[in-house]
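Appendix B. Raw example, untouched.
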Amino acid sequence: MGKLGRSGYGPNGYVPVNLLKALILQAWHSLSDEDLEEALRVRLDFMVITELEKVPDHTTLCRFRNLLIKVVALLSRIQASD
């Protein structure tokens, strides 16, 4: 997914594949962003599946989902133009 606009300063970001796993779990369990954040903190199965070293806050999860939506829309437009 590239650098995602990071400057290289500050703490390391999350592994995109692990965030995607979290969003899949969220959809399967019909969780809100806040509920997903809590589940990633307390549910062992969520911790093991996502392999996240630290729990992202609900805003990070929302931003990542919105980024995925934009990427999928862009790829759809590219495919449609071929």
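End of appendix B.
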